[in-house]
């Protein structure tokens, strides 16, 4: 898989976010700090809807 990070991944070594990989019908997501651990995958339409919602409603996305 070809993993990529957001350009908003933060300073330092850029491991403060998730990485995504595009598959034919799904989007895979993993933690940048622990790439060898579990990977989640979502249907492309569901992942796109989530991203659209976060862009439209940024207050729904709290930072930890």
Please explain how this structure is put together.
- This protein has 64 residues and is of the alpha+beta class.
- It is built from one helix and four strands.
- It has a four-stranded antiparallel sheet with strand order 1-2-3-4.
- A hairpin with an 8-residue loop joins strand 3 (26-31) and strand 4.
- The longest helix is centred in the C-terminal third of the chain and has 13 residues, at 44-56.
- The model has no long low-confidence stretch (mean pLDDT 83).
Q: If strands are numbered along the chain, what order do they take across the biggest sheet?
A: 1-2-3-4
Described by the principal axes of the CA atoms, the overall outline is: globular
Largest sheet: 4 strands, antiparallel
pLDDT averaged residue by residue: 83
Pairing-aware structural class of the strands and helices? alpha+beta
The percent of residues in helical segments reads 10-25%
Tally of DSSP β-strands: 4
Specify the number of helices. Answer: 1
Beta-strand residue percentage: 25-35%
> What is the CA–CA distance across the termini?
28 Å
Order of helices and strands: EEEEH
Radius of gyration: 12 Å
Contiguous runs where pLDDT drops below 50 for at least 5 residues:
none
């Amino acid at each position: 898989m070809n993993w990529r990070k957001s350009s908003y991944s933060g300073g330092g070594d850029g491991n403060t976010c998730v990485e995504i990989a595009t598959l034919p019908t799904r989007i895979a997501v993993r933690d940048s700090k622990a790439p060898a651990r579990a990977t989640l995958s979502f249907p492309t339409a569901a992942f796109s809807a989530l991203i659209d919602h976060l862009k439209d409603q940024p207050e729904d996305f709290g930072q930890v």
